[in-house]
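**User:** You know discrete backbone vocabularies at least as well as I do. Would you mind producing a protein record, from residues through to fold? Write it directly below this note and I will take it from there.

**Assistant:**
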Amino acid sequence: MIAAHAVGQANVHSVIFDMDGVIIDSHPAHRRAWQEFLRSVGKEVADHELDFILDGRKRPEILRHFLGDVSQPQLVEYGKTKDYFFQRMSLEVRPIAGVIDFIAELSRQGVRLAIATSASETRTHSTLQRLNLIDHFAVVVTGNDVVDSKPDPAIYKLVCQRLQSVAKRSLAVEDAVSGIRAAKGAGLKCVGVADSRCGEKLRSAGADHVIENFVGLSLTDLQNILHGHS
């Protein structure tokens, strides 16, 4: 239960969403796509090794982690191949429970919304369009827009700059430790999205509040979290 927030405190100006694991439940499909891709280039990896891909990392970092010193042309080619495997599984990817209605309600109430994701620009826009969400977001920043991936706070600083929003009136929504640290490093309060098994890990990383999904979450709840009343 989130306590009522104090009257007269500044309202939430903007909410910044990660995409994978926050808007869409894509992690199982990503794990299978990466495993199939890596197998196609002769690299067998154990299931636990694939945890590396789920912590807000950009594709070049993942490819070099598993395959070593990969040239820029190879990065492009491998990226296309990995996308092929993921697209075969994309119909399995569903929105996180309650997130579509939650985003629509925030938009209706005048909260400025943004995306801060390590995913590619192409996949991010196609995903948001497929879910009919693209028009709700004033700003979309992807892995193509920043040099350093999360936990570096650059992506959140850039989003706040483009939103013309100060960090103390913005909230981030993240599902990974690196994302939580990136948001907190940029001075934002942060809501973690995780099941009961992973929630404590996000709290330890600095999450101000943790939810399993967006069912029943309201703008009033976000005001409470922003002002430390969660």
Observations:
- The longest strand covers residues 112-116.
- Confidence is low (pLDDT under 50) at residues 3-8.
- The chain has two domains: 14-25+94-226, 27-92.
- The chain has nine helices and six strands.
